[in-house]
Structures are given as C-alpha cells and as structure tokens.
Amino acid sequence: MQTLIAPSILSADFANLAHSVKLLEKENGADLLHIDIMDGHYVPNLTIGPNVIASLRKCSELFFETHLMISNPDYLLNEFIKAGSDRIVVHPETCPHLHRTLTKIKEADLEAGLAINPATSWETCQFEYLGSLIDTITIMSVNPGFPAQKFIEFSILKIKDFRQKLDSKGLSHIKIEVDGGINKKTAPLVVKAGAEILVAGNAIYGEADPFQALLDLRQSVN
Ligand code: DX5
Ligand code: ZN
Fold first, then answer.
1. Which of 12, 56, 206, 210 has the fewest CB atoms lying closer than 10 Å?
2. What's the pTM?
3. Band (1; pLDDT cuts 50, 70, 90)
C-alpha cells in the first residue's frame, strides 16, 4: 500500500496560497492537501476560515482534508462542507455530540476523521459506537496549534496500538494518518508502525524547494 503525502499549508506563504498549492499539484506531488483551521480558542493560534478554502477549491483539484481545531465545530460545519472539503477531521473533545457531528459529515457525502491529541486515549474515540462513521484517525504527534514542533516519540507506539486494535475489532477500513513533526527521519518510523497518510508542513513548505522536499519525503518511505 502506497503511503500518501498530505502537505499542510500551515507552513506555506499565506499571501500566495494558490501558488503554494499549485507547486505541489503535479505528478508524484501531493496526494491530498491538509488544511489546518485554528480558532484561537481550542488551540492558541488563528488561521483561516471557510472562505479561503472556497477560494482554493476554485484553483485546485486536490482532495481537501480540513483539520478543524476549533471549539464546537457544529456551528461552522455546514460552511466547511459547502466550501469544498472532501474530508473533515474533528477532535472528539471539541464535539459535545460527536455522533451527530460525524453523521452530519457523512450525510453530506464527505469522509470523516477523528484527530487524537497526544494525551487522548483509544477510549475517547468510542469506536464501538462510532467506528462505521469514521474513515481516518489522525494521530497527532505534536500538541495541535503550531507547525515545526518536535515529534513526540511515544506516537510510534500509539500508532502500532491503534492499528492493532482497529484490525482486531473489525475496523480495518479506518486509515491512520500522522500529523506533526513528520520529516525524512520520522516518516519511515511511523510508516513502519502502520501509518498510511503523512501530514507534513515544515518539512515541505519550510524548504527552499517544496516539490523536491516532497519527493525526498516520499523517497524516505519507499
Ligand atoms: C499542527 C497542525 C499540523 C501542522 C504540522 O497543529 O495540525 O497539521 O501543520 O506541521 P509540521 O509538519 O510542521 O509539524
Ligand atoms: Zn493538521
């Protein structure tokens, strides 16, 4: 199974977002685009809203993964759906009615994902009730909020543990993504542990040649 690379635009030049996306939208480039939404409340940083996603949608064919780091995403869910997201990822702690939130995403014909903070446990995901509504689990290997943070080592064990538990509970359809501190050194470790989708911000957009950096990252896991 080929590892998918999801560049995060958090480290891109926000004054030239369309250009930054186009740089990677070519053969062997991005498999999907990871869009980090932060509200200055759930996480201590602010980024963009649905209007920017809608603008990017007009100039990119990539699969858009919208990572919502916002308190109670239900209030803005319709806007992020309408903007052109293909998958919406929420943090379970932010959703007072997680079943309702995931159902709403799936009923709009989008994929749904859960993002798991370093201190969030397997039990919080309530897979026994929600497993059929979940397409991806994003294991956060940093605390959410900022790019270019240090990879938290125990994430490797967590990925292995989640993969093994998902498979043993009949939830093999759920793919594991890793978000935070992914680079040429950490990528092979998380892939070996069972990750299938790699989010990378600084390791791609922090480099002088983002496309070459993406190729190098891909090479590190092949
Ligand atoms: C962190 C975000 C990440 C971030 C990753 O809160 O969710 O998607 O962009 O950035 P790097 O790859 O630089 O750790
Ligand atoms: Zn993210």
1. 206
2. 0.98
3. confident
